[in-house]
Amino acid sequence: MGKFPTGWCAEMSELLGMGFFQRALVAGLLLSLVCGALSVFIVLRRMAFIGVGISHSAFGGVALGFLLGVDPLWTGIGFAVLVAVLIEWARTRGRLEEDAAIGILFAASMAAGVIFLHLSRAYNVDIFGFLFGNILAIGGRQVGEIAVVTMVVLAAVAVFFKELVFLSFDEEMAWVSGVPVAGLRYFFLILLALVIIAAIYLVGIILVAALLVIPGALACNLVRHIRPMLAVSVAAAASACLGGLLLSVVLNWPSGATIVLLLSLGFLASVLLSRRRAGGGG
Amino acid sequence: MTTPAVHIRDLWVTFNHVPILEDINLDIRPGSYVGILGPNGAGKSTLLKVILGLIPPSRGEVQVFGQSPRKLRQAGSLIGYLPQRPLNNPRFPVSALDVVLMGRFGRLGLGRRPGRRDKEIALMNLEKLGIRHLAHRLIGELSGGEQQRVFIARALALEPRLLVLDEPTIFLDACAQDDLYEMIHHLKEELELTVLVVSHNIGAVAAHVDDVVCLNRRIHVHEPPPIGRLALESTFGCSVEYLFHGEIPHRVVRRDE
Fold it and tell me: Within the 177-236 window of chain A, which residues sit less than 8 Å (CB to CB) from chain B?
């Protein structure tokens, strides 16, 4: 902790003036916005494990990108969307429970990823970046990609907000009322796959699920209506992201892991707060 | 002759080659109040789900107001439905009014937000069920009976012609059960609905409905319901219900094996 006290403010303002840190901040805040919003639906729909499955599957896609020598972002998106669609397809066929489908697909695509990497002989620092995130090394083009994904996903959530709430509440009832449930389920999974791939820059494949689960779970502990819940979830993600980035630079810690740790601490605090409130209320 | 509200011919439903419903034939007149009775596992909920279009028939034909249930659903459903367990997650963060508004979503179509008229319809239905004062309470905070009314209000917010209720009284005490059936009768008259109620409680149902359909994989139809002895027998439970079946005067549409 030696760096903390001396010249901290000066260091901060110097940091904020640097291009790499500005890009990291913008990317982090955009991703917090979209992850925070989706997170509420993921928690309400009990889909946490799907997030883990899709993000780990993306590893196969990223490795394929290295093998073929193309941008791993695109092969990652392709793989993640494919796995999302396969999970849903296996579920609707009814032959396989959803959690089994996720478990099989995510192990298989990680295994494929290891083989692809072996064939490409590209065991290098890029891989580590994809596994654990490397937001401080993010380029302008990637910030642009993240901005596009954020816009698309937020617009989709805004347009289909009432359907997403209904689906999360009771899918069978939504179907009976004439809502196109099957299409919306695929649609939501594809959105999720897009966000996961974009968020991999921030915290990496291994930790991305935390960003999709913790903010929503935290918000569920603190508020009881869906709209404030979305606001609290986004705010929690954004403050963890901001705080985590600063802290990681100051302490020279890995940024993705610092963000996730801060979020987890926030969740712990929300548990204690809601306990106390429940105790006080009766 | 008018189109029947529900028209079923030679319906079979099987899961993994096990028949759940066998050779069902049933016509339900528009404007009638029909109780479907039967023991657990008789296929009552399955029959409702076939009528709703949730489960496709393995064989046979189902029409609701002269159309296949799936077509009807796409055209904007005319069926209001109360599922057996309408609240899967008691901590779900929506108010009673939000839940009733969900009944409007199918009519509104994708991506269109509920407007003032939808809100008025939702509030009016809460009013009808006597729970308008609970509109802004969280759904999970309400009592079982109050929740049931919210979900019936949601079914009505769809502006249905057919109301389908799956075990509506399962979480209610005897008094509340009678109140509920009375209220449904009243709503049926006021809104000119056809009502289908599934229950395993013969007494409560037989006292209120026009027709009784006894279902145990196959069907028997009673018109009018033999209320007296059935009501008496209700306290004895399901096995009695079927021992009893041959004695009372009724019209058997299909004979059991």
Answer: 177-180, 220, 223-226, 229
Rounded average pLDDT over A42-68? 89
Give residue B110's region: left, alpha or beta (phi > 0; psi -120 to 50).
Answer: beta
Domain B1-78+160-257: assigned CATH number: 3.40.50.300
CB contact under 8 A, B94 and A165: yes
Is the pLDDT at B11 greater than 70, yes or no?
Answer: yes
pLDDT for residue B229 is more than 80: no
Chain A CB contacts of B108 under 8 Å are 162
Contact A180 B102 (CB under 8 A): no
Within 10 A of A275 (CB to CB), how many other CB atoms are there? 11
pTM comes to: 0.86
Mutate to test the interface with B, among A176, A179, A220, A274 (most CBs of B within 10 A): A176
One CATH from 3.40.50.1110, 1.10.3470.10, 3.40.50.410, 1.20.140.150 for A8-274: 1.10.3470.10
Q: Are strands B218-222 and B211-216 parallel, antiparallel or unpaired?
A: antiparallel
Residue B77, chain A, CB below 8 Å: the answer is yes
Tell me what the pLDDT averaged over chain A comes to: 88
Task: Give residues with Cβ within 8 angstroms of B189, minimum separation 6.
Answer: none
| pLDDT at site B221 | 60
The 10s digit of each residue's pLDDT in B71-127 is 888 777 789 999 988 888 889 999 999 999 999 998 888 888 999 999 999 999 999
> Cβ contact (<8 Å) for A169 and B94?
yes
